[in-house]
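Customer escalation, tier 2.

The customer says the design service returned an amino acid string that "doesn't look like it belongs to this structure." They asked us to rerun it and document both sides in this ticket. The original structure tokens are below, unchanged.
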């Protein structure tokens, strides 16, 4: 326990290295400036001022080296560049001390080293400071940090490729038609490059994660893989993006350029469509939410959208989102987090949230009061694979603005559906793997705004679904199998019943 505490303190102190390192840099530049004044102007800076400045430079450079060592122990940096940077820092501190001793009065009087060593040491220190600073910038911001914004006229003189006009806060895309645009390379990759690779590249690997190469991105970091194909909610990097910006685990970190709402929609779409690294836009289904984003970038403006996707529009949800509410209190977020859940913002432009307990399969009825902890702000609720039963429904129905509800693989029954029918804003309901039967059809038909209903592995029959669709003709019901397959299954069951009756006779 003591060891952990010491490590945390060293990590905390090490974070001050970028701040401390500016002091010796400033004094060294000042000393060079003083020496130039002494040589080329009528202004004279006394030897005592220079000696004191050299002492401050040496002490602060040594202190910066110590903090740099503490910071390096966190890991996540390119070892080769880190080692070079460390030795350059140590070398600069050593030269600073040597310059101080050579210039100090008591040593200068005895040995007269000053006229032979001082100026070469000062020049060498200044050059080493520039080199060490360059490597420090590479460790923090990547190898191209100093040169990536070089103006085009100078780029051509230096033999560098011409810089394209890339927006700072949006997806960087060239104008392509749907048949040419690569989803990952042309749409997703630029987002990662602008917002993520600064901390996850060959030189700086926070959390042992690199996102600049596909194979390393797939591998993940020290906490494992960070994304799952076809699983937005199970993808760690999406969870991190949606955390409050004040949260330590929020990505990109506070103070960095954040993921925009359009970029987040694109990233979710890429995951939902299988997280392919080689497919083109024309090979994926494009929803109404994604299409205008692609069109604004010159992609997909003439693309046909399948009819089933055109129906994928949550009208009630959009109308609710248009009217903002107060932000969820930090104490509420902490309570949910402490219970193994998450409070995730649905958008960066309002305060509505999703509450999910997907990461806590032990969540049960005794914890159910947390479900209604933010009743006005909760639009999405995910209780999949938890231990809740009908008892928890009394808290679910307090969420008057709820538009999407996940109850798959829980212990709820037809009694729960009877209560849920009061949630008139509900547009999405997932009941996969529950024990509901055709007795719930009447109550489900009362959900007039329901757009999507998932009933796979339930006890609801095809005839029950047909009854429901007569009342809600625009409802999309997912049974996990086609209606033709369901009809064959129903026929088989009916034949089995007839056979049993025949045999009994």
């Amino acid at each position: 326990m003591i060891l952990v505490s010491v490590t945390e303190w060293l990590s905390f102190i090490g974070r001050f290295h970028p701040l401390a390192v500016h002091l010796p840099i400033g004094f060294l530049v000042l000393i060079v400036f003083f020496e130039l004044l002494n040589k080329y102007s009528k202004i004279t800076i006394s030897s005592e001022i220079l000696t004191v400045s050299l002492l401050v430079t040496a002490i602060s450079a040594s202190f910066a080296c110590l903090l740099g060592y503490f910071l390096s122990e966190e890991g996540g940096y390119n070892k080769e560049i880190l080692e070079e940077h460390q030795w350059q820092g140590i070398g600069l501190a050593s030269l600073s001390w040597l310059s101080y001793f050579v210039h100090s009065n008591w040593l200068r009087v005895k040995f007269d080293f000053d006229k032979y060593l001082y100026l070469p040491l000062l020049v060498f220190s200044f050059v080493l400071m520039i080199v060490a600073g360059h490597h420090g910038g590479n460790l923090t911001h990547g190898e191209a940090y100093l040169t990536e914004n070089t103006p085009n006229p100078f780029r051509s003189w230096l033999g560098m490729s011409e810089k394209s006009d890339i927006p700072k806060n949006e997806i960087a895309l060239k104008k392509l038609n749907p048949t040419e645009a690569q989803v990952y390379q042309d749409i997703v990759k630029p987002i990662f490059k602008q917002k993520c690779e600064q901390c996850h590249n060959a030189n700086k690997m926070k959390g042992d994660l690199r996102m600049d190469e596909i194979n390393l991105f797939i591998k993940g970091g020290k906490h494992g893989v960070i994304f799952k194909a076809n699983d937005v909610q199970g993808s760690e990097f999406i969870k991190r993006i949606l955390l409050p910006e004040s949260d330590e685990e929020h990505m990109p970190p506070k103070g960095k350029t954040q993921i925009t709402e359009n970029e987040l929609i694109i990233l979710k779409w890429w995951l939902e469509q299988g997280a392919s690294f080689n497919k083109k836009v024309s090979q994926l289904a494009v929803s109404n939410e994604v299409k205008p984003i692609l069109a604004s970038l010159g992609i997909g403006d003439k693309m046909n959208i399948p009819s089933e996707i055109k129906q994928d529009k949550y009208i009630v949800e959009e109308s609710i989102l248009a009217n903002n509410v107060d932000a969820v209190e930090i104490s509420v977020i902490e309570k949910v987090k402490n219970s193994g859940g998450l409070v995730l913002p649905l958008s960066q432009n309002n305060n509505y949230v999703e509450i999910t307990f997907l990461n806590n399969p032990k969540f049960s009825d005794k914890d159910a009061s947390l479900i209604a902890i933010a009743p006005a702000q909760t639009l999405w609720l995910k209780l999949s694979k938890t231990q809740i039963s009908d008892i928890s429904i009394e808290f679910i129905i307090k969420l008057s603005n709820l538009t999407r509800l996940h109850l798959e693989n829980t212990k709820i029954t037809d009694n729960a559906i009877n209560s849920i029918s009061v949630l008139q804003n509900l547009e999405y309901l997932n009941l996969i793997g529950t024990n509901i039967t055709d007795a719930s059809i009447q109550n489900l038909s009362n959900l007039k705004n329901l757009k999507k209903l998932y009933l796979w592995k339930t006890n609801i029959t095809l005839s029950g679904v047909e009854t429901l669709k007569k009342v809600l003709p625009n409802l999309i019901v997912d049974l996990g199998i086609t209606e033709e397959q369901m009809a064959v299954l129903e026929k088989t069951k009916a034949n089995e019943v007839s056979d049993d009756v025949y045999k009994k006779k």
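Tier 2 assessment: The sequence is consistent with the input. The beta strands are 342-345, 353-356, 378-382, 404-406, 428-430, 452-454, 476-478. Residues 53 and 186 are 52 Å apart (CA to CA). Sent an explanation to the customer and offered a walkthrough call.
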